[in-house]
Write a structure and sequence with these properties.
Layout: H1 5-9, H2 21-37, E1 42-48, E2 54-62, E3 73-75, H3 81-88, E4 92-94, E5 107-108, E6 114-123, E7 126-136, H4 144-166, E8 178-180, H5 183-186, H6 205-223, H7 227-239, E9 246-253, E10 256-264, H8 267-273, H9 283-290, E11 295-296, E12 317-318, E13 321-322, E14 325-334, E15 337-346, E16 351-352, H10 354-391, E17 402-409, E18 420-426, E19 432-439, H11 444-462, H12 467-481, E20 487-494, E21 500-506, E22 512-514, E23 520-522, E24 541-545, E25 551-555, H13 566-574, H14 582-594, E26 606-613, E27 623-629, H15 636-650, H16 657-675, E28 679-685, E29 689-696, E30 702-703, E31 718-719, H17 723-729, E32 732-737, E33 742-749
Parallel strand pairs: 2-8, 30-31
Antiparallel strand pairs: 1-2, 1-7, 2-3, 4-6, 5-11, 6-7, 9-10, 9-15, 12-16, 13-14, 14-15, 17-26, 18-19, 19-20, 20-21, 21-24, 22-23, 22-25, 25-26, 27-28, 28-29, 29-33, 32-33
Helix pairs in contact: 2-4, 6-7, 6-10, 7-10, 11-12, 13-14, 15-16, 16-17
């Protein structure tokens, strides 16, 4: 509703920074008189904004917590008593200062337990705002006498405001309202709620003590970055002050409720809430669907106030019995919609005063905003990781005489996509190109540049260009793309026949080499300049010889960002002298990437590529087999069993076939059901052991069902009792993330007299 000419004329006198002395005195007289005469817990004056487009609160009289439940500003057509009174020109009554709600018989259904009434502030055709008061619900409300009294007080204030306006005094709302104490409100039941609050006999002590957990909750939630932080803040500031035995924090998604965190004796509550549908009629669902704090009303429990008749004080609500617990369900709202629920459980009946219910509602609003923010950050992180996954190679190329594994870990201190990548590429001259690179920045442009660079490097390597020439051509391509991003890269071209390794760098850390005797050295090469710089000059490489049993370590600088000596770190992680088998190679990758560099997490993403050179001796080269299964292929499990059976029988290992088929069936089933992606099955047989690898694109680890510690803790994990068979039959098994998903692998010992030690059959 737009103001008339006379409306706008009331606000042409300067900015609305603070209340002037005369205006403040007039407003204070009105709010004090309204609170005392109408026995209100809060009285407030709303004034039009300088441009007349909305109402803003100018002065509030009363005590906590009711003074904090009033909206700070509202549009002129808002469904509040204050706006309705100004629009209609008469006293308006609304049983909720926040918004009207549908009534549920037998329950308290308003976000704040107060009844609001407002009278317009108008005189001589000029509109100033409205005078609003709050009374606790359950009182006798606003009968004709109280409405008439409110209108008389508003009329006297309108006359005073008109006089100020005619004298040129700005009658506009300040930037922030002025709060003033009111004697009646300070000693009301709202300011002195029952329960463990404040010091008995000190007026206002309980109300102010009740507000402290709210302020503390706001501080903690501002620092929260994970759902565990939100749950801990709620436990400290909601569960403990309100003396609940248990607390469950849940969210609403896909038509169901999902537990985010809990504290105390919550086993039964978690089972009832986690995964429950919103079509049921449970109290929790009713609270969510109605966006209402549900507490059963008890008309017999009314707090007595001096000077009032029995039964006319504010309602003191109590908890209904839900199963074996007394439970209060507080909707957790983000903006104007419900995002979850905070459930508090008690061992017996527990009464809640209007003040406590008001604070619970305010706490729920803070929790809702925090839950939304944390979940949004989690979605952004998942999106960034998903983009990164698609840009990394789905699987490393299998090369006889070379065992490889890779890892990628995004930055934990940012939700942006990174620019690190790795690759293993076959070259036309039977060499193998090991590549790792890093595009600067954490933006979508960085990710796009990374995808282009990886494609270019793979193309040039496939054409047979050596490492130095490969980097030279890639630098030229990056310059032609016109991107401002810089990138570093390391390329090692390894000849499996003689162990010759040609190393070229583009501003990237040199690779490390771990020898069979445990010694670690750097494969030095000219540093060259990063890719993307103008006129980079000629890229140069250096040749080294790698002895069998050595492990090449290529890494991005995010891996060792908080460590001083990379060689010492690698030596410590790899352990004493000795050849690293496949399982040892996986363990080494996990150890190198495992520790976060500091309490705030990894600031940069990190990539790692390990390659164990097995040498030209064909007796050391494993027999290998590979099977690809398309997503949702119902025949995939049978195909995997047949693949394992045929290969093992062909290699003279039929005695192992039944056990390996059984564990293969279980792992492939989990991958098809839970990952929803294509599945790769790889079988490798060495002289003394058999290795099975199942790769998919899901990063959640497989968890045997009995290992689950909580119902929600493994809600997304792959689980099944068949994994106990894997644990029982395999000599060792584990899962390894690789940036594109995970590899579940196992190894089984082969008897000395089993199998044909011939060459690979594939």
């Amino acid at each position: 509703m737009s103001g008339s000419r006379s409306d706008r004329g009331a606000h042409e006198s300067g900015p609305a920074g603070t209340l002037g002395e005369e205006l403040a005195a007039a407003l204070h007289d009105a709010v004090r008189e309204a609170a005392e005469r109408l026995e209100a817990v809060t009285a407030a004056v709303y004034l039009l904004s300088p441009e007349g487009a909305e109402l803003r609160i100018a002065m509030i009289g009363g005590g906590p917590p009711s003074v904090f439940t009033l909206p700070g500003r509202m549009p002129l057509d808002a469904p509040y008593a204050s706006a309705r009174a100004l629009a209609g020109g008469e006293v308006a009554v609304l049983a909720d200062p926040d918004a009207p709600r549908a009534h549920i018989p037998g329950c308290t259904v308003y976000p704040y337990p107060y009844l609001a009434a407002a009278a317009p502030l108008t005189a001589a055709g000029v509109r100033f705002g409205s005078l609003t008061v709050l009374r606790p619900e359950g009182t006798d409300g606003y009968g004709p006498g109280r409405r008439a009294e409110l209108a008389r007080i508003a009329g006297r204030l309108s006359t005073a405001l008109t006089a100020l306006h005619r004298r040129g005094v700005p009658v506009v709302s300040p930037n922030l309202p002025v709060l003033v104490p009111v004697r009646g409100a300070e000693s009301s039941a709202d300011a002195d709620p029952a329960g463990p609050w404040g010091t008995p006999g000190v007026a206002g002590s309980a109300g102010r003590s009740l507000m402290f957990p709210l302020q503390r909750l706001a501080d903690l939630l501002n620092q929260a970055t994970t759902m565990d932080h939100v749950t801990a803040a709620a436990r400290f500031c909601v569960m403990a002050p309100f003396q609940a035995r248990a607390m469950v924090l849940s969210c609403v998604a896909e038509g169901r409720m999902w537990v985010l965190g809990h504290s105390g004796d919550t086993a039964g509550l978690v089972r009832e809430l986690h995964g429950s549908g919103l079509h049921t009629g449970t109290p929790a669902v009713r609270a969510v669907r109605g966006n209402t704090l549900l507490i059963a009303d008890d008309p017999g429990r009314r707090a007595s106030r001096p000077g009032t008749e029995p039964g006319t004080g504010p309602v003191t609500a109590h908890l209904p019995l839900v199963g074996s617990r007394h439970v209060v369900d507080v909707p957790v709202s983000g903006g104007r919609h419900v995002v979850g629920l905070c459930t508090l459980a008690y061992g017996g009946p527990r009464s809640f005063s209007p003040a406590e219910r008001a604070v619970l509602t305010m706490m729920a609003g803070l929790l809702g905003s925090a839950v939304e923010r944390v979940e949004l950050n989690a979605k952004r992180q998942a999106l960034a990781e998903g983009i990164q996954k698609r840009l990394l190679p789905p699987a490393l190329v299998e090369v006889p005489g070379l065992a490889t594994t890779a890892r990628y870990q995004p930055a934990t201190a940012t939700a942006e996509v990174g620019g690190d990548w790795y690759d293993v590429i076959r070259m036309p001259d039977d060499r193998v190109a090991l590549v790792i690179g890093d595009v600067e920045g954490h933006t979508m442009e960085s990710a796009a540049a990374m995808g282009q660079l990886r494609t270019a490097v793979a193309a040039y390597a496939s054409e047979g260009h050596g490492p130095a020439a490969l980097l030279q051509r890639t630098a030229g391509l990056l310059a032609r793309l016109g991107t401002e991003s810089l990138a570093t890269c390391c390329v090692v071209a390894l000849d499996p026949e003689d162990g010759t390794a040609e190393v070229a760098l583009a501003g990237h850390p040199a690779p490390l080499l771990r020898l069979p005797d445990g010694t670690v050295r750097t494969l030095d090469a000219p540093a060259n300049v990063p890719l993307g710089l103008p006129d980079p000059g000629v890229y140069r490489a250096r040749e080294h010889t790698v002895e069998p049993g050595s492990v090449l370590v290529l890494y991005s600088d995010g891996l060792f960002e908080a460590r001083e000596d990379e060689a010492v770190t690698l030596a410590g992680a790899a352990g004493p002298a000795g050849d690293l088998a496949d399982a040892g190679l996986e363990d080494l990758a996990d150890r190198l990437l495992g520790g976060a560099p500091g309490p705030r997490g990894r600031r940069d993403d990190a990539a790692l590529l390990l390659a164990r050179y097995e040498g030209p001796d064909t007796g050391r080269v494993p027999r290998t087999g590979h099977l690809s299964i398309q997503r949702r292929d119902l025949r995939g499990v049978r195909q995997a069993r047949e693949f394992v059976h045929d290969r093992l029988c062909g290699w003279g290992l039929a005695d192992l076939s039944d056990d390996v088929e059984l564990v293969t069936s279980e792992i492939v089933t989990n991958a098809l059901v839970h990952a929803g992606s294509d599945v790769d099955v790889r079988l490798r047989v060495y002289a003394d052991r058999l290795r099975l690898e199942v790769r998919d694109s899901a990063s959640d680890p497989p968890v045997p069902a009995l290992y689950s510690l909580s119902a929600e803790g493994c809600a997304r994990a792959e689980h099944g009792r068949g994994l106990f068979l894997v644990d029982a039959l395999a000599d060792t098994w584990n899962t390894s993330p690789n940036g594109r998903g995970k590899t579940v692998w196992l190894e089984m010992d082969i008897p000395a007299d089993a199998g044909d030690p011939g060459r690979s059959v594939e």
